[in-house]
Design a protein that fits this description.
The structure is a homotrimer. The first copy, chain A, is mainly alpha-helical. Chain A contains 15 helices and no strands. Chain A has one domain. At the A-C interface, helix 8, helix 12, helix 13 and helix 14 of A face helix 3, helix 4, helix 5 and helix 15 of C. Chains A, B, C: This is Trimeric intracellular cation channel type A. Chains A, B, C: Belongs to the TMEM38 family.
Chain lengths: ~300, ~300, ~300
């Protein structure tokens, strides 16, 4: 029985890993990505004022992960745009979401049950991308652990990691925060996931790639669907982090800080503008996490 | 007669396409580009305070199109700087325009009749660059329509597309707008032109490259010279766009927007800073178009 | 005697040039680099709030020169991160400086005599990097003078040249200034140094690379140690520059500027925000030079 179960699971996992992504899952990915672009303040107005800029933003949301990965590996950042079919598909989704008569398409896809399906399907693509990214980097840098992780991470996080650039394209500029200072759940999950895939790729994790893809996809699906239903943004990693971080990274030791203050007043005089006070930062942090969680979904 | 005329035109076009660009037309290109750098507020003061930064800005204005194209195709962004003669020529122009005794050189080249000649010659270089960009991209991505367009476009627009970066180098930061949100005429013309050249390259447009270069150059010359003489910034594409855009991209449907407001208040709470109100944006838009039209010339 | 002395010096220089950099000198480089990160306002708080962002900043400070050089030459910007040992070493230094119990490590390395040794050792690495950068670029672009200089320069200046990006990562944004507008001593010295190494590489400077490395390292060591001891930021190049610059680049000719004002009022209306007034710029300039000098050390 045990064995049979294991076998069945193995077959299921490998069948799942062999599932073609294009066009079905990709479409879901594009829909959810562009859906969250419409949630950005001013995005809809922009689509009317300058459709081209809006289209470019949509492309960043759909293909940001490829652009970043190609940049990191020193390849052409628009290399993926040679897949005309994908770009045309993403363009069609963008057009339907923003300009469909009576806004029908938007209403359909943002109808919760529909949306949940798409959100779940998007995670399938995300995990595949992470695996592919780690695989690609491993192919070029056989022992480049950090490069594998970096590549897998950007493939999983996508546009979220270049949110400041994406905002700038829309004429918005929020320098006081960024996705790395305040990671959203998908970005963090991609980071942890890419570590697992790197360990698997370098044979430190005794599990088949298919199984890892299967289990990590399930985990991501459950988390994201749950978060979307409950509109919650609480990271499931929080408890673990709150336990581990204090051990390794301590808490703000004002003494340490003051020490610097005394010793290097000069460097502080010129701090201009001063970093926002902790409190406001916290609030902002909260708000940002909300928005970012959406964007990065 | 007809035939003879066609033949003559064909010969003229191919002769025109065979015209060497360096050094004459390049010089004109550098002169006009750096001339418009001097129009940037604070550019002249900067040339006195930190000549090196001013020189770097001038290089961006002269070679921005190569830098961007190389970035897009994943090559060394400073690859073109291996053409020492071009760089030295551009440096000489920069020096003469900013530091020539009694400002003679600047007065000569900005004397309208002279300037018009240079402006016309600059368009010759621009159109050649677009053709070369599309050609280069087509050579690497045989069916990469979007890559061909992107490459041709940045080759034609040049520094305008990286205006925010160029401003940042001068210590100026205007995040509320950019060349893609509010396209200047040259940027838009380059975009339409690169579409034509891409169609020609992929044999969808039944016209020889030489002829297309010839006719598009004539069009650009006439437009730019006219706009420079009349100090106007009205885009000749406006009528067509005003007719087509509403059909495909509608107008701001407040219902659509409100829908988002209700549905995703959260994402709005954190909009910080808020996007400037439409009215002020319009004004700015106007002003920007003015400045950008100049820069991108 | 003369000859013997020359021989001995030559042997000393070549022995010095053959000195292995890793791990000793690299460690010193990482220590000083990260030490100056801790001087950045808010850096210590950040290390507590988001250790990952802090680690990323530390990596930029340690490997910024490689990242920039790879970007310029169109290679993978994270290529150097395939040297796991270097990255792990840098990570260890980062951890010890920020999170060592009772802050012991920080106190040790920032104890002046110790610090001076590290500062001196860092210059050894800097000069080697410049030489290697010029060498690498010369290998790819045999006559690319400007590319050699650019590569050597970024290899020598490192993170200072991307300070705006590094600040943005920490949620700080100071667009009104940058390292190119107001060069710190190390950046300027790297620029002059890279010119010398380029001349040497192209056989215009009749001196062996080993000797040039030796003498330039000595010069940098003396300057940096002196500046660190005296907390001074006066550039030793100032006298020469103050003599040469006026000759070649004159001083602000208000006439010139006004001319633009009259002629191109339009371009000024839209200058928004206006460039800060000269006076405040000067102060800022001073302050910045202080901070930058530290960062770039």
């Amino acid at each position: 029985m045990e064995l049979a179960g294991a076998l069945q699971l193995g077959e299921l996992a490998s069948a799942f890993a062999a599932l073609p992504i294009f066009p079905l899952f990709d479409t879901a990915y594009f829909i959810v990505s562009i859906l969250y672009l419409t949630y950005e303040p001013g995005a809809v107005e922009m689509s009317r004022k300058s459709p081209f800029a809006s289209w470019l933003c949509a492309m960043l949301h759909c293909f940001g992960s490829y652009i970043l990965a190609d940049l990191l590996l020193g390849e052409s950042p628009i290399d993926y745009f040679s897949n005309n079919s994908s770009v045309i598909l993403a363009t069609a989704v963008w057009y339907l979401i923003f300009f469909c008569p009576m806004n029908i398409f938007y209403k359909c896809v943002s109808f919760l049950p529909m949306k949940l399906i798409f959100v779940a399907m998007k995670e399938v693509v995300r995990v595949r991308k992470i695996a592919a990214g780690v695989h690609h980097a491993h192919h070029r840098y056989h022992h480049g652990w950090f490069i594998m992780m970096a590549t897998g991470w950007v493939k999983g996080s996508g546009v979220a990691l270049m949110s400041n650039v994406e905002q700038l394209l829309r004429g918005v500029w929020k320098p006081e925060t960024n996705e790395i200072l305040h990671m959203s759940f998908p970005t963090k999950a991609s980071l942890y996931g890419t570590i697992l895939f790197t360990l698997q790729q370098t044979h430190w994790l005794p599990i088949s790639e298919a199984n890892l893809i299967f289990f990590f996809t399930m985990f991501m699906m459950v988390c994201k669907v749950f978060m979307t239903v409950t509109h919650s943004h609480a990271s499931p990693f929080a408890p673990v982090e709150n336990f581990i971080c204090p051990v390794f990274f301590g808490s703000v030791s004002s003494g340490h800080t003051n020490h610097h203050h005394d010793h290097h007043g000069a460097s502080h005089e010129v701090s201009h503008p001063p970093p926002p006070p902790a409190k406001s930062k916290e609030e902002l942090n909260e708000g940002t996490r909300k928005r970012k969680a959406k964007k990065a979904e």
